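Cross-check.
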Amino acid sequence: MVTLEDEVATALAALRDKATNHDRENMARFGIEAPKAFGVSMANMRKIAKGIGRRHDLAQALWETGWYEARMLASLIDDPAQVTPQQMDLWCADFDNWGIVDTVCFKLFDQAPDAFDRLAPWAQRTDEFQKRAAFALLASLALHGKGDGDEPFLRGLALVEAAASDDRNFVKKGVSWALRAIGGKRGPALRAAALDTARRLAAAADPTSRWIGKDALRDLTRTPKPRRTPAAKTEELQ
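Predicted model, tokenized:
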């Protein structure tokens, strides 16, 4: 009989088999610090996840190993419908680099039933990556959510404005991501509200708030380049 412990060992062996020095070095290159890491590409982690399918129990067991790739794999195979607020808080407390924060929020937590309820508590956390999680989750909800209405995102904009003076790199970039996602993907009313927020921040005395506001304004007011016709492309090549 195959036990859960056996399945964890099999998954870890599959990850270890796909590890390369190149992928390990890429983590450092992109600022992902993880003491326990094999060095496995996201493409290979997705392949392993596809072979496993949805497994809430295995996801939890993999998370508890502490391995970076095992935790990434856990976010890919967990069943969002079974993710509880307690689980979200426990995993958030383990967040120690931006790669795991963004993947867990973008691939799993934004589909959990209580996702919106975690935003305000996490935005009050003091740890850099745990606080980033609030805004990575808000951005993911804005990009992926459907039928959520405007009110949760208006509350999210208030969280953005309150956190805009936090000058820690991964927090401020998460705050900017959330602001840009709400303004760019949630319809005209939220776009207008996000632009108002961005303009206030861009005019603020605090330098980090100004950076976030200007970063969002650049993105939200950028004029899209017109699509080139085949004839125009041919002319460019002549």
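The mean pLDDT is 92. The chain is about 70% helix and 0% strand. Passed to J.P. for a second look.
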